Amino acid sequence: MRNSAPDAGFTLIEMIVVVLVLGLIGTMLIARGPLHSTTLDLRGAAQSLALALRQARMQAIVSGAATTVTIDPVHMEYAQGHGARQALPRGVALAAGSATGVTFYPDGSASGARLALVEQGRQVTLRTNWLTGAVTVDGP
């Protein structure tokens, strides 16, 4: 009689070692705290502000009245009209020379503005075209 070939696969000990190694790696990652990216904070803040600007433009067109988004460089907040104030993430600031408000008109045009958000040497620039009211975001 022939001996059959051993079954291919992993032993219980090998599986336990793999689970322990994965557990140690997971513990080290959790101990580091949440993975945080300043670029994501800056980009997210810029996208949120751009969304508020675009919504203000649409509101001006629909309502037939001018709508303004104001930016408070002291408290690092922005608001559409008299609406709720939105805070920029901690560490994100409005760059010097940036506009502190943008007004959108019922025909879709805007006062035109350049807003720059900065964080740890990185910068994202939001531009509002005065003729079309289009908002663009440039940066990381």
Automatic annotation (TrEMBL):
Keywords: Cell inner membrane, Cell membrane, Membrane, Methylation, Transmembrane, Transmembrane helix
Domain (General secretion pathway GspH) ranges: 45-131
InterPro entries for the chain: N_methyl_site (IPR012902), Pilin-like (IPR045584), T2SS_GspH (IPR022346)
PROSITE patterns cross-referenced by the UniProt entry: PROKAR_NTER_METHYL
Intracellular or extracellular location(s): Cell inner membrane
A Pfam entry, by short name: N_methyl
Domain of life, source organism: Bacteria
BP-aspect Gene Ontology terms: protein secretion by the type II secretion system
Gene Ontology CC: one annotated term: type II protein secretion system complex
Main subcellular location of this protein, as a coarse class: membrane
Topology of this chain in the membrane: Single-pass membrane protein
Transmembrane segments: 12-31
Family under the similarity heading: Belongs to the GSP H family.
Name this protein carries in UniProt: Type II secretion system protein H
Organism: Gluconacetobacter azotocaptans
